[in-house]
Amino acid sequence: MLQLTEKFKGTTTVGIVCKDGVVLAADRRASLGNIIYARNVTKIHKIDEHLAIAGAGDVGDILNLVRLLRAEAKLYYSQSGKRMSVKALATLLANIMNGAKYFPYLAWFLVGGYDEKLKLYSVDMVGGITEDKYATAGSGMEFAYSILDSEYKDNLTLEEGIKLAVKAINTAIKRDVFSGDGILVVTITKEGYKELSDSELEATLKQ
């Protein structure tokens, strides 16, 4: 199982809880062994207006789970009239992953969002779930953690969180051959999900 996890965790994803939002960031490279087969892959996916996941691993497995989670979130809302909480989404995903552990989904997820509070969870390939203020997953995670461990602080602003997430991803890109080809950044706040454009990201980083 460890060998499978190492083989299929290509990419780098980062999640950070700030005082006014959650930041999710990921590189855009998709690789197949030693081959780069795509350079503009979306690795962060909106599940609901206040929920998103970032996935590292097999693209087919990630997209299959994204479709399932979106359907479950819509079903939950239609039946209860309430939006699914971040913890509920992370728990549902963990249960799905654990239930398939003998024929596993080859993916590792960061689940971020806002309900009553800003929250971030990490869900591994066999359903292990942890909540933290920051997390990273994928083949470049060791390099990203070196930045997050040294520079994260409580009560980061959203702008500071974006800069830190980008720095962590960029550090991974410099050393991890499976990460590269740009960065996608998403924020989730009280106002909902927002994907930063290249110009917005550049403007934020220049501030």
From TrEMBL:
Mechanisms controlling activity: The formation of the proteasomal ATPase PAN-20S proteasome complex, via the docking of the C-termini of PAN into the intersubunit pockets in the alpha-rings, triggers opening of the gate for substrate entry. Interconversion between the open-gate and close-gate conformations leads to a dynamic regulation of the 20S proteasome proteolysis activity.
Catalytic-site annotation from UniProt: 11
EC top class, as a word: hydrolase
EC number(s) stated in the UniProt entry for this protein: 3.4.25.1
CDD domains in alphabetical order: proteasome_beta_archeal
Main location: cytoplasm
Propeptide residue intervals: 1-10
InterPro entries, per database record: Ntn_hydrolases_N, Pept_T1A_Psome_bsu_arc, Pept_T1A_subB, Proteasome_bsu_CS, Proteasome_sua/b, Proteasome_suB-type
Catalysed conversion reaction: Cleavage of peptide bonds with very broad specificity
Locations listed in the record: Cytoplasm
GO molecular function term, any single one: threonine-type endopeptidase activity
Keywords: Autocatalytic cleavage, Cytoplasm, Hydrolase, Protease, Proteasome, Threonine protease, Zymogen
A single GO cellular-component term on record: proteasome core complex, beta-subunit complex
Pfam family for this entry, one: Proteasome
Keyword Hydrolase attributed: yes
Function: Component of the proteasome core, a large protease complex with broad specificity involved in protein degradation.
Oligomer and partners: The 20S proteasome core is composed of 14 alpha and 14 beta subunits that assemble into four stacked heptameric rings, resulting in a barrel-shaped structure. The two inner rings, each composed of seven catalytic beta subunits, are sandwiched by two outer rings, each composed of seven alpha subunits. The catalytic chamber with the active sites is on the inside of the barrel. Has a gated structure, the ends of the cylinder being occluded by the N-termini of the alpha-subunits. Is capped at one or both ends by the proteasome regulatory ATPase, PAN.
UniProt xrefs under PANTHER family: ATP-DEPENDENT PROTEASE SUBUNIT HSLV (PTHR32194:SF0), METALLOPROTEASE TLDD (PTHR32194)
NCBIfam families in the cross-refs: arc_protsome_B (TIGR03634)
Protein name as catalogued: Proteasome subunit beta
Source organism per UniProt: Pyrococcus horikoshii
Gene for this chain: psmB
